[in-house]
Amino acid sequence: MAPHVCAAFWMIGAIVSFTSMAVAGRAVSFELDTFEIMFYRSCVGIVIVFSVAGYAGTLGQVSRAKFGLHLIRNLAHFSGQNLWFYALTAIPLAQVFALEFTTPIWAILLAPLVLGERITRTGAMAAALGFIGILIVARPSPDALSWGLGAAALSAVGFGLTAVLTRRLTRTETITGILVYLTVLQAIFGAIAAGYDGDFMLPSPATTPWLFLIGCAGLLAHFCLTTALRLAPASFVMPIDFARLPLIAIIGMLVYAEPIDALVFVGAAVIFAANWINVRAAKG
Questions:
Q1: How far is CA 119 from CA 126, 180, 238, in A?
Q2: Are 229 and 29 in contact (CB under 8 A)?
Q3: Is there a contact between 101 and 242 (Cβ–Cβ < 8 Å)?
Q4: pLDDT (tens digit, 9 = 90+) per residue, 67-114?
Q5: CA–CA gap between residue 111 and residue 283 (Å, rounded)
Q6: How far apart are alpha carbons 87 and 81 in whole angstroms?
Q7: How far, in Å, CA of 11 to CA of 237, rounded?
Q8: Which of 96, 112, 226, 229 gets the highest tally of CB atoms within 10 A of its CB?
Q9: How far is the first Cα of the chain from the last one, in angstroms, to the nearest whole number?
Q10: Distance, CA of 166 to chain centre
Q11: φ and ψ of 120, to 5 deg
Q12: Residue 201 gets which letter from DSSP?
C-alpha cells in the first residue's frame, strides 16, 4: 500500500485506542481514583515495555545522563494524565476530547521556554485562534464553568509541556529509554500519590480487564500515531486524528446519554483550523 494509505490505517488504530482508553477510564473511575488508575496503567506498561525491549535487545540503551529531564517530563505527563482521567468523569466525553486538541497550541507557547524556539507570527496567530476555540467549547460563565472543564483544559497544558520535553529528550535519548522512564517513574508517582493517605484500593475482577485495556491502549495509541507520522506528513495525519471527536460524541450519546452539543464541534473546528495553520506554515 502507498505510505499515505498505511498512515491512514495506523491513525484508525490510534483513534480506536484513544477512544477505548477514554471509555475504560470512565468504567474504572467508579472504583479507583485517578492516582490508582495511573499506577495500575503504568504497571501494565512496565510489563509490555520491558518485554518488548528485552526481546529487541534495547534495554542497554537506557541512560541516566538525562534523568532530571526525564523526571520533569514525567511529572508533567503524570499531572496531565490524571487531570484527563478526572475530566472523563466530570464532563461530556466530547468536551474532553475537544479541549485535548489544544495540546499543540500549548506546545507552541511553551517551546520558547523549553527549547529556545522563537514564536513566529503564524504560531502566535494559531495560538490566539486556538484560544478562541477553547472559549467556544468551555463558554466561560458562572453557570458553565466547572472543575471538569478546568481539568480538561489544564490536562492539555500538561500534554503540551510533555510534548516539548519529549522533543528535547529525543535529541539524545532513544525511544526505549524514554518509554522505560515513562512507565517506571509514573508507577512510582502513582504509588506515592495513591497511597499517601493509607487507602490504596486493589482492583476487583470486574475492573482488572479495563485496567489492562487502559495500559495497552495508551501505549498502542502513541505507537500508532508515531508510526503514522513517520509514513506521512502531519498535514495529512492531523485531520484524521480529529475524527476522534465525532466518534466519542456518538459513543457518549449512545452509552452515557450525553447530548451532542453543536458548539463543541464549532469550537473544535476552530481549534483544528489553528493547528492546521501552524502545520501548513511549518511545512512551507
A1: 10, 32, 21
A2: no
A3: yes
A4: 999 999 999 999 999 999 999 999 999 999 989 888 888 888 888 888
A5: 18
A6: 10
A7: 7
A8: 96
A9: 27
A10: 13
A11: -80, 165
A12: P
